Amino acid sequence: MKKISLAIIILFYVGNLAWAEFKLPDLGNPADKVLSADDEQRYRQSIKEQMYQYNFVMTDPVVASYIYHLGYQLAAYSGKPEQPFDFFMVPANVINASAYPGGLVVIYSGLMLETATESELAGVLAHEIAHVNQRHISRMMAKQQKSTIPILLGMLAAVAAAQTSNSGDAPIAIAASMSAIQQQLAINFTRYHEYEADRVGINTLYQAGLNPEGMSDFFAKLMQKNRIDPRYQLPEYLRTHPLSVNRVTEAKNRLKAFPKKDYVESVIYNYVKERIRVMTIDEFTDLEAYYLGALSTDDTHKQANLYGYALHQFRQNQFNAALKTIAKINPEPSVKHLVDLLEVQILAKVDAEAAKSKIDQLLKWNDGNETVLETTANILLQSKSFEWIDQAIKNLRKLTMLQPNNPHYYDLLSIAYYNALKPIQAGESMARKEHLMGRNYRAVRILRNLKKDDGLDYYQSSVINALIAKYEPLITDKERQQEIAADKGIGR
Fold first, then answer.
1. 241, 256, 271 — which closes off a domain?
2. Cα distance between residue 218 and residue 197, in whole Å
3. Coiled-coil stretches, from where to where (predicted)?
4. Where would I find the beta strands (DSSP E) of 23-170?
5. Closest by alpha carbon to 486, among 456, 436, 446, 442?
6. Which residue has the higher pLDDT, 99 or 1?
7. Span 86-105, pLDDT tens digits
8. What are the phi and psi torsion angles at 63 (to 5°)?
9. Concatenated DSSP letters for 271-289?
């Protein structure tokens, strides 16, 4: 009874949160059977904004950069390289992945931990990319319109709510609630859609230089787990992407059409996997015992396991022990910066000058590396030194140029300017972030308040006026009324 009641609570929470809180683009009632390209992009932007707003995105620099670059490596060979994509990792121990209209692909951290190779993870991504490029989601959603998006977001909300609870029944409650939602909407991909996504995805894997066997191997693993453990008859990836023996067999048969070649998988996959393991672990898992066991039996992944163990020790404030563990790592050149960054994070807690010296070296040799730029900026921002904060600002400005549509970077930049006692620049960065989050009314309000500052110079005033002129026409009547009501303390 306890498990059932928790599932019902989460279902109730999902329904109310979805309808009460999430904003949807007004798409009208299109007569065609497929959403237009513009409609797809509006859906994608709406979901993306709200995933950031409700902290569903794993913004850890190492994880976010890895999933972003792996996703685009595949997208470049997907047959539609012009299609824009966002690839996000959701920090939840659920074996699932999903694609949304317009090119938004979400991978749950639990799914990555279930994969054994980068090609298995890439197989899931390639499959989801194929669903986007073949417009499968849009075809299904065109008939359902607004009923689908809030419940899809509600699934994420259910996962987030249960993940923060202390109940051991949370994963089962998540599964039960998601199952009921899926059955209610009947939005499962059709058999034809799944076969087509397999076919297109396998070709994408091969063209991108990843092992196309990764897709069929992972799907076969999920089917095997489903037979062994009855808990996995609950939804997750198997429910939203129904598998069959025929599908797995056909996927394996398609591999015969590809000429044999050597496949190269990045070493970083194993390091990111261990990072995710440490960052998303539940309170009932003994990571100390896990890593001691892994290090005594698994020589193949020893370096990555040492990295994960050092990260675990760092998060437990065992700084000296973590430094000793890092000293045992002999990383390959492609992942050396990850080990160095973790060492810097630890040094910052015990020897600030040594940390700053290491940061200078890292920036010298990795000046365009997003992971290095963001991680070192976060470390530098912990200092009260204006010299350190100025370097953090330089890092973050580079990041906003590399990814100008990433609100997370503007959020960090605003904090950095605030710490540097530069309120005008802090406000401008915050306004840019609000704009990227779809909150143009707030962005304009911030900018208009900045105009009241007597210390504005000509350049700053010109930039602020230009941004107001850009953002103000984007404010919708609905947003304006919601913000006015919020200011007056009126409930929605």
1. 256
2. 15
3. none
4. 86-90, 97-100, 104-108
5. 442
6. 99
7. 999 999 888 888 888 889 99
8. -70, -50
9. HHHHHHHHHT--TT--HHH
